[in-house]
Amino acid sequence: MNNVRISSFASFKNGTLKVNGNVLLESAMETFFLTYYEVMKLNYPKFFKMDNLSKLAFVTCDKLFEQDAAEEVISAFEKGLIFSTADGCLDTDEKYFQSTESIPSPALFVYTLPNIAAGELSIRHGLKGEMATFIFEEFNPEFQTKYVQSLFEEKRVSICISGWANFYGESTEAFFYLVRKSENGIIHSTENIQKLLDKSWKN
After folding, report:
1. How far is it, in rounded angstroms, from Cα 118 to Cα 122?
2. pTM across the whole model
3. For the residues 131-146, what does the mean pLDDT come to?
4. Does the pLDDT at position 90 exceed 60?
5. Residue 78: which of 155, 178, 162, 179 has the closest Cα?
6. CATH H-level, domain 4-201: superfamily
């Protein structure tokens, strides 16, 4: 389907958040999420309860729909999300395990699922269509392209967020893009996604 296009994309790496290749915010990693919340004047109290992976995915995807007003008329059941990660919720798993030495933390336990970040994105953006989470050692553009393309071919989505986020140890990176049927935008292909990724993560 040559009318499936990428309408916007966003990335995070080394404390730098970019939207469509342009720097939106730079800050120290230790304070980045709080800085984003304050600078963007968010009113989303649940943000502070999220684990780090969910916060990373949240801030990276937050501006994807801003340039796509047409999405407002699309049913929530036609909006999909295909998410991938390497380490999933290991960052939270370790914190939860440590908490069990005294009193297990219910607030941490809630986030001991690798697909919880996808759930938070679905709530934030009103996505009720096809949703899947995959585990890869690194972002796999070819797989993501084929999977998302098949959803459009089978008419299971009209718009879809696709991408990658990982938060564990020294690995803090994310890359997401919005795909929809359109005659405008970047052709949805493995090659183009790889180019956007390379451009986004380049310092």
Report:
1. 6
2. 0.89
3. 93
4. no
5. 155
6. Thiolase/Chalcone synthase (3.40.47.10)
